[in-house]
Amino acid sequence: PGTRARAPTRTRADVVFVPPSESASGRLTRLPVRIVVAMFAIGGKKDQAKAAALRAAPKSASKTSGGSVRPSNHPKLSMYTETPSADISLETFEAFALDRMRVLKAIDDGLSRGKKPAEMEQLMNEETGKHLKITDVVPGDFSTLGGAPLSKDEVSHFALRLAYCRTEELRRWFLLNECQLFKHRFNKLDAYAKAAFLEEHDMEYKPLKPETFAEKRKGISEVLHGIMKRDDAEKILNAGASGFYAVPFEEVADLVRGRRVFMADGEAYVPRDQLTSLVVGAFRASLSKSLAVASRRWAQHVAGEERERLAPVIVSLSKRYLGRDFGKPGDAGERGSVVTLKDLPSAAKTSFPLCAKNLFDAVKREHHLRHEGRRQLQLYMKGIGLSLEEAMLFWKTEFCKKIPAEKFEKEYAYAVRHAYGKEGKRVDYTPHTCMKCISSNPGAGEHHGCPYKTFGEESLTAALGGLSIAPHKVRDIVQKAKAHHYQLACGMTFEATHGKTIEEGVQHPNQYFDESRKALGFGASGKEGDENKETGSASPVTPGAAGARPARPSIQPAPVSA
Ligand code: SF4
C-alpha cells in the first residue's frame, strides 16, 4: 500500500489495474488495484443508480421508514448489487478475501457437522467478530464513489465472487455459505434497519388483501397449526391479512420445500415474521445470477486479459488452505509423526487417509504412477517425515520392478529431489491440501485427487470395506461423499477407524496422518508407545478406544500457506 496511481481508462471496465509500480520478490503483492468490477454486479440500472445515490448521500443522516434517524454513510448490510470502486493494494485485496474465506469455511464446517441453529449463530458471531465485522473499512486514504468508506465486507465479497465463480462446485459452495452469512446478519438487524434494507432494495412484498385472507383463512390455518403450537398459530392468524405477505413461491423455496407455508395460484402467503426467508431467497437468487454472469465473463475476458496478474491470485484463492503448513523440514518430527521407509506399509494401513492410501496401493500394485499422483504422494510422504534418501529408495525400488535403474535416474529421480527443494528453483514445496486434492480431476489411469470425490459409489464402498468399517457406517460415509461433503466423509472414516473424531475437521491429508498417529499412541520418535512414556499411561490407544488418551495440543490455524 502506499503507491497509488490512477487506473488507465478502458472502454469496458472490468477489473482494471494500474501498472505494477514495484515487484516485491516476483510476487504479485503491493500492486495498487482498482476494482471496477461492474461486470460482476447484477441488478438493473435502477439498482445500480440507487445504490450509487445512497453511497453519495451526505454524511449527515437519513431517515428510515420507521422514522428513526440513522447515519447513512457507514458500511451496512449489502446485497452486493453494486461493486466497489476504489484503488486498493492487491495485498489488501488478497488479505480481505482470505479473511472472508476463514468465515465461510467455518460456516461450512459448522453446517457439515450438523451444528444446531443456536450453535451456528454463536459460531458466526465469533468468526465475523474476529475476521469480518460489517463495519470494517479499508484503511488508508483512497476515494470511492461519493466519498463513502470502502467496506471490507464488500471488497472481500467481490474478491471471492471472482474466485468462486469459475466452476459449478465452487459456485455452489460459495452460494450456500454466503447465504448463511447474509441470513445471520439480516436476523441481527433491528426492525428499523430491516425496514430500511427492504426499502433500499425495492423488496416490496405485497401485504395480503383482506378478501384474499378471508377466502384462504382455512388453508392458512391448517398449515400454521401443522407446523407450530396452537397458541402461536392463533396469534399469527389473529393479526389478519396484515400479518401476511403474498410472494412468488420461488422466492421462498425453503419454506415451500418444508411445507411450512400456504400456497395458492403460484403465491406463498408468508407470515410477517418469516421475512428472513424472503429476503434470503432474494439474496440467493441475485447472487446465483451474479455468479453465472461472472463465470461467463471470467472465461471470456478476465482470465485472458489478466492472465499475468489478477488471474493467478484469484485462482489460488479458492484453493487456499488456512491451516497449518505441513511441509517444513523438521516439522514432522516436532509433530511426532516421523516415519521411516520400513514403517511405511504399516503406517499406510493404519494412518494414511484414503487419498494417500490409494496412491500408495497403486504404486505398490502397478510399480508406476503418473505425474500428478507421484507429486501428490511424494509431497505427502515428505510431510510425514520421510527423508529424501528414503523417498528416493522407495520410488526407485518400486519403479525399478518395471523399468531399468538408468531410466529411473533419467526420468524420475529429478522429480523426487525437486519435491524436496533440491532441484530447479529449490522451493520447499508443501504437501497438497484437501482443497487442492478435491479440486483435481484425474483422468483414466490416474490415481491422484480425493477418492471421496473421484471414486464411484461401488469403488468407495469397496475401499471403505477394506478398512474394516461396519457396513452401516460405510453406507453413511458414501452418502456423505455423494452429497459432496468429501472432507466430512473423510472425518467419518477417521472416526470409524480410530474411534475418535478430528475436532477441527479434516483439512489436510497430513493433518489426518498426525491425528491418526496421536490416536494410535505414536510419539515423536515415530515409535508406538512413546507417548505413553510421556504421559505415564500403560498401554497405547488402539482404534476404538475413544478418548482414552489425553489429547495433544490441537493443530492451530497458522498463517496462510501458499
Ligand atoms: Fe485426502 Fe482430504 Fe480427501 Fe481425506 S478429504 S481423502 S485427507 S483429500
UniProtKB/TrEMBL annotation:
UniProtKB keywords: 4Fe-4S, DNA replication, DNA-binding, Iron, Iron-sulfur, Metal-binding, Primosome
Bias kind Low complexity: ranges: 53-63, 543-553
Obligatory cofactor(s): [4Fe-4S] cluster
Record region (Disordered): 53-80, 516-562
Pfam families per record: DNA_primase_lrg, DNA_primase_lrg_N
Sequence positions that bind [4Fe-4S] cluster: 355, 434, 450, 490
Domain DNA primase large subunit C-terminal: residue ranges: 348-513
GO cellular component: alpha DNA polymerase:primase complex
Any one Gene Ontology BP term: DNA replication, synthesis of primer
Gene3D superfamilies found in the cross-reference section: 1.20.930.80
InterPro entries: DNA_primase_C, DNA_primase_lsu_euk, DNA_primase_lsu_euk/arc
GO MF terms, alphabetically ordered: 4 iron, 4 sulfur cluster binding; DNA binding; metal ion binding
Homology family: Belongs to the eukaryotic-type primase large subunit family.
The protein's name: DNA primase large subunit C-terminal domain-containing protein
Organism: Micromonas pusilla (Picoplanktonic green alga)
